[in-house]
């Protein structure tokens, strides 16, 4: 954090709000929905986050497929519905279906469902 000067000029120079004599940096805002894909589905060494266009989950997945290939969309969608063993969250809330609406700054997270173990 950067300390504000006693005359309060820091606020006028930077436009940043002051909090108890310290500048508070603005939080980052996104103007497009983003999809965060784990490495297991992205086919890379780590999670990938990409910006997409669309006002629904279906449109965002279609935009991702047009730009990055159909693999993600095929692993998430089956017969026009979300696959049973893939979890999709929009801004932290589990998606109900492909028609779920997105905000301009929505974060879509795609995760394979955790399952397994032995039955006795």
- Name the structural class: alpha+beta
| β-strand number | 9
Kindly state the percentage of residues in helix: 10-25%
Q: Within the CATH hierarchy, at the fold level, what is the topology of the largest domain?
A: Ubiquitin-like (UB roll)
CATH architecture of the largest domain: Roll
CATH class of the largest domain equals Alpha Beta
Largest sheet, spatial ordering of strands: 4-3-9-7-8
Assembly type of the shown chains? single chain
Q: Uncertain runs with pLDDT below 50, 5 residues or more? A: 1-11, 18-25
For this structure, what is the CATH homologous superfamily of the largest domain?
Beta-grasp domain
Shape: globular
Q: Main beta sheet: strand number and arrangement?
A: 5 strands, mixed
Q: What count of helical segments does DSSP give?
A: 4
User: How many individual domains?
Assistant: 2
Question: How does this structure look, described?
Answer:
It is a single chain. By secondary structure, this protein is α+β, with helices and mostly antiparallel strands. It folds into 2 domains: 29 residues, no CATH class; 79 residues, Roll (Ubiquitin-like (UB roll)). It contains 4 helices and 9 strands; from the N terminus they run H-E-E-E-H-E-H-H-E-E-E-E-E. The termini are far apart.
Outline the fold blueprint.
Layout: H1 9-14, E1 18-19, E2 22-23, E3 34-37, H2 39-42, E4 48-51, H3 57-68, H4 71-76, E5 77-78, E6 81-82, E7 86-90, E8 93-94, E9 107-112
Parallel strand pairs: 3-9
Antiparallel strand pairs: 1-2, 3-4, 5-6, 7-8, 7-9
